[in-house]
């Protein structure tokens, strides 16, 4: 049966997704609208927003994983937060079906829609990829990879079998955008520190870090000279950057085969080769472009529909700062945050009988961390390398992470990390917490445990 969360007198604003766009839109709506003007309902499968630019630092242990997420219920006390996924939506009927974390799906009615469900990893039908690979988009994946990389060092240091050692110490990443490069560089930096300080039987030269990128460059967000400098920096650290190379196959026993003819066993395969709009859009009646994004007007209104808005990674928003016809804003946090603010202001204006204003923002540039005290940045045409870029990365992101609480905790994490030695302990039991109890109860390794995920298999491999 359909339920309507608001009272008949005030409109319901349904925000699908509590990420960058969803959280910032709801924050602004809760601040600008009085309780009588509208009820804001935020639906997300996670009870938190994830500040994704901090995931590489969370994986490297510089920031506590809990501090890179922002709890929705605490941050949005004047909104109704629903933990569940929107699985179907008809804007014509103004209804959405929600699958809660547990229990049967149900429908709600709404008046105004904000579609902000973001993007998902863009994978290719490469044999073995789904079975052996893991993405890098969620805090769960970041924690898993941190534990996994450290567990691989433990495995390599505790065996005399050269084959086990080689595959444990080979780490393969696919995709050279900022998410991939930062994850690749931060994890290598952490692993190198761990090897030098705590693994006398290993040396950094025993590790093999391979980045596979299908195009002729990495970091498309910065100029070519900065991208080339980054490749030189990574190569000087002994990392293997393969441009114009594709992942072709991963065999059942984890041997990675590349398009340049090379193949090698690798216990770690991280896929960061781009994103695509959330596939839930196919279960809606919203108009989509040829890339599967929601068609939007410059005002962030969904084209041709009343009362529907969209922004962020899943939206095709015209880029008014570019002359090329058909240019749309790139999927990144910079646009997501600014679009959310414009979107919320436009909703408030329309609810109060006013007119929406177009979104216009020229991309300011990029900052990327490449490990402790290492980075690359290009902001408003200014190019920075090494320590200054790393410092800019930190100051920029701490100024951007939502809420004072999170800013303070992140700064505290960095301060502690600069005073004490780096934390490089693998909490492998987190990946399989019931194993010991199930074994003690005599059910053996399998018992009633759920089937292992691709990530668990990578851990076991
Ligand atoms: C590792 C990494 C590093 C990055 N670093 C940078 C950087 O340095 N600079 C930069 O500009 N950008 C960066 N980005 C990109 C940036 O994080 C995204 O562009 C931004 O998050 C997009 O915001 P969004 O609101 O569209 O999507 P998201 O922030 O991803 O939010 C989407 C939300 O929708 C929820 N959702 C999904 N499906 C459903 C459903 N069916 N129903 C309801 N809710 C749903 C999700 O749980 C999520 O909370 C990075 C991304 C990654 C992965």
TrEMBL record:
GO molecular function terms listed in the Swiss-Prot or TrEMBL record: NADH dehydrogenase activity
Occurrences of domain FAD/NAD(P)-binding (ranges): 13-339
Keyword Oxidoreductase among UniProt keywords: yes
Record's keyword terms, sorted: FAD, Flavoprotein, NAD, Oxidoreductase
Cell inner membrane among keywords: no
Family, similarity comment: Belongs to the NADH dehydrogenase family.
PANTHER family: NADH DEHYDROGENASE, NADH DEHYDROGENASE-LIKE PROTEIN RV1812C
Protein name in the entry: NADH dehydrogenase
Organism listed in the record: Geodermatophilus saharensis
């Amino acid at each position: 049966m359909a339920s309507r969360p608001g009272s008949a007198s005030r409109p319901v604003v349904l925000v699908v997704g509590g990420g960058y766009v969803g959280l910032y839109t709801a924050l602004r709506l809760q601040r600008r609208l009085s309780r009588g003007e509208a009820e804001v309902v935020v639906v997300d499968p996670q009870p938190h927003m994830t500040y994704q630019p901090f995931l590489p630092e969370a994986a490297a242990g510089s920031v506590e994983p809990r501090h890179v997420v922002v709890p929705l219920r605490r941050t949005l006390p004047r909104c109704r937060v629903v933990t569940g996924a929107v699985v179907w939506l008809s804007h014509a009927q103004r209804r959405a079906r929600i699958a809660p974390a547990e229990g049967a799906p149900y429908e709600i009615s709404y008046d105004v829609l904000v579609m902000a469900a973001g993007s998902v990893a863009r994978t290719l039908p490469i044999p073995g990829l789904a079975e052996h690979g893991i993405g890098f988009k969620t805090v769960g994946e970041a924690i898993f990879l941190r534990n996994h990389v450290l567990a691989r060092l433990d495995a390599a240091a505790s065996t005399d079998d050269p084959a086990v050692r080689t595959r444990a110490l080979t780490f393969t990443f696919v995709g050279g955008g900022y998410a991939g490069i930062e994850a690749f560089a931060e994890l290598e930096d952490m692993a190198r520190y761990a090897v030098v300080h705590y693994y006398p039987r290993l040396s950094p030269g025993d590790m093999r870090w391979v980045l596979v990128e299908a195009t002729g460059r990495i970091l498309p967000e910065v100029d070519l000279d900065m991208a080339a400098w980054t490749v030189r920096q990574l190569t000087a650290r002994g990392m293997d950057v393969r441009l114009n190379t594709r992942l072709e196959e991963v065999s059942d026993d984890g041997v990675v085969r590349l398009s340049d003819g090379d193949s090698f066993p690798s216990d770690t395969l991280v896929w960061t080769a781009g994103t695509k709009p959330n596939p839930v859009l196919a279960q809606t009646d919203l108009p989509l472009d040829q890339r599967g994004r929601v068609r939007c007007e410059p005002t962030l209104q969904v084209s041709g529909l009343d009362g529907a808005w969209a922004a962020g990674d899943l939206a095709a928003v015209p880029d008014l700062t570019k002359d090329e016809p058909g240019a749309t804003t790139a999927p990144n946090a910079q646009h997501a945050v600014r679009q959310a603010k414009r979107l919320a202001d436009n909703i408030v204006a329309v609810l109060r009988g006013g007119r929406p204003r177009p979104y216009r923002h020229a991309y300011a540039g990029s900052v990327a961390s490449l490990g402790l005290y290492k980075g690359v940045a290009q902001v408003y045409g200014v190019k920075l390398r090494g320590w200054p870029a790393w410092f800019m990365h930190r100051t920029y992101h701490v100024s951007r992470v939502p809420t004072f609480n999170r800013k303070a905790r992140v700064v505290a994490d960095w301060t502690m990390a600069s005073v004490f030695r780096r934390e490089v302990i693998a909490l492998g039991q987190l990946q399989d917490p019931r194993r010991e109890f199930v074994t003690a109860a005599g059910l053996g390794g399998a018992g009633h445990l759920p089937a292992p995920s691709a990530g668990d298999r990578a851990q076991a491999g």
